[in-house]
Amino acid sequence: MKKQCVLSIFLGAVFSANSSAQKLADSIKTKEINEVIMVSSRAPKEIADIPGTVWIISEKELQAQIRGGAGLKEVLGNMIPGFDFGNQGRTNYAQNMRGRNVLVMINGISLNSTRATSRQFDAIDPFNIEKIEVLSGASSIYGGDSTGGIINIITKKPVSDKLGFETSVGLRTGFHKGDLDKRVAQSVEGGNDKVKFRLGAALTHNDGAFDARGNQVTTDVRQADFQYNQSIDLLGGISAKLASNQDLNVDLQYYNSKVRNKKWLSFGQNFIGFTTKNPDLINVLDGADSDVVPRTERFMANLQYNARNIWGGQNLIVQAYGRREEVDFGAAFAEVPKPPAGVVLPVFLSSARGNTEAYGAKIVLNKKWDSFSFTYGADGDLESFTGDQAIFNPQKSSESGGLVNRTDAFVGRYPDTKTSTLSGFIQADWNITDRLTLSGGVRQQFIHVKLDDFTGFKEQVYMHFGYGNSADIIKGGQNYYDITLLNASLLYKFGPAWQSWFSFSQGFAVPDAAKSYGFGKYQLANNRWNLQNSINIADQPLSGIKTDQMELGFRHNRTSEAGLSVQGSFFYALSDNTLKIDNTSFTIYLLDQKLRNYGFEGAVSYRFNQGLELGGNVLLMKSETETVDKGWQNQSVYNTNPSKFMAYTGWNAKRFSLRLQMQNSMDYTDLADMKITGYTLFDLIGDVKLNKGMINFGVQNLFNRQYTTIWGQRSAFFYGAPQKAFAYQGRGTTFSVGYTINY
What we know:
The protein is mostly beta strands. It contains eight helices and 42 strands.
């Protein structure tokens, strides 16, 4: 009853607002045919000239969803047709685009790492985002990890030479005890015609989350979630006009997202809920106090220099960056397979940690003639990764059921990894006629992966508990990749708003080396673990995954506030290898099996003159591997997701806007008969414009649907029983309200 009353208040505020409306000052660009983006070719290009499927999420669209109660991953899943629906937890594992890896960037800086921790969207507060550019499908322009598409997050930049401020506050709750999330954000910008600055700070403080039945959502002990999480995002930017044709931009970011030691998943005293697989004894309880808690901490610096009309009329972009991040996971039962005879381990908890440092530089040049244009450049990157695991005291953890955890030791979890990349590319466009454009390009990429010597993780654990005092090492080594990636396309313009294209492009992904190597078969003799055989990079180098993609697409962008906007593409992607995950040891390896993804991705919207808008998007896809005995079969649920669609209707007026949207995830069954069950959710979001500022509101999961997220269903397959500990549930009906003002 309380939820219905609150909903009535929200809707009443929309239709009874009598104050005169004032448009909020912002720098939002509308989706017009002449909008310029970077993601397609690494140089500014108008959407109408791009022979590929591109999507733009403006600041206005993004903030309406975020302030309406959705998380960043959820917004992207709703608004990008080819991108899978996101869960409400911390991980974006297997949230793919067109069934393949996604390269996620901030201002052109990759957030992907050799050791894939799946935390790319636990990276920035949406308050500091100006827009998001998306390129669907395999891309040869950017190289590694872009086999499924690219998501480039563009941060807010200083635009005004007058002192200005933005304040935003908000609340989110499902009206349960201990269920109130709070957010507050503030920015200041200013400067003069030569130098401008912006500083933005956003703070969120979450409490618990509850499902549709009113039960607290079980803490995601493996990948962690955002319950009892606190995050801060500090983003500073300086833009300097060095000359009439030269600009310099510097961005600095500090991001820290960390679970507070408050509540965690209890398995009962002596872990009885886990050992007996009794779900009734597994509950989220107060009293959590662990030495290592889930967190993501990141420092990032980005410098970009732009010069126009130099060196014979060329445009130049030079970028240099550095990124350092530390990722910690939650206290969970250790991933140690059944020990050999004579080794008896206590039941114990552990937490994984990983540190990544990445540095790089890029240079891009662009030159245009009457009918030709060339974009060419080079980039280089250096990345290092170290990972270990905290072993918690078994007695202390057991007494508290897993709530209180004290570190006895740290052991190596993965081999230390260093990766260096050097690439060069050239892209050419030829306007054969005013309507027909031929494009093509090549990227040459050299990748060097080096792994240090390593002692098997299991054997380190055994020695910690007194079985053996030394062990042989598994040899490290290095691997080289020399990859040539090609692309070609034809773009035809039927008119100012209509375009169609056919394209071919190749993408490439390097398997996670840390999860591919550093394990072997040992035997204990004379208190020493002797290595019998191993998987090591020197003797068994892993090939990469190269993907060939063909796409036939069409696009119509409206040229005014009202009218039709539609984009769609038929795609077919094929690679010679399939990634296989061993869910006992949580290692990966490549199968000599072809993998293909094919289907349709599209979106349509129509905006009427009187404010009514209708629209939706869809991804219909098959993801299959070629087996020896049965031919093409559905790919494993560990790596792919169901088809999906989203539909909405909205009303946009000067004083308010209102939008009802529905998302539907379909069922999916793989070749092993493991099934992901689909679900349908409805959300209501809107805003009221006041004389001073704007009120945003939202109701997520409007009809209080009980469902298990896609990650929750996949997690149960990964980790097994007891299912209650891993089947991460979605939130029930949740209300959000916020206020934002620019002054």
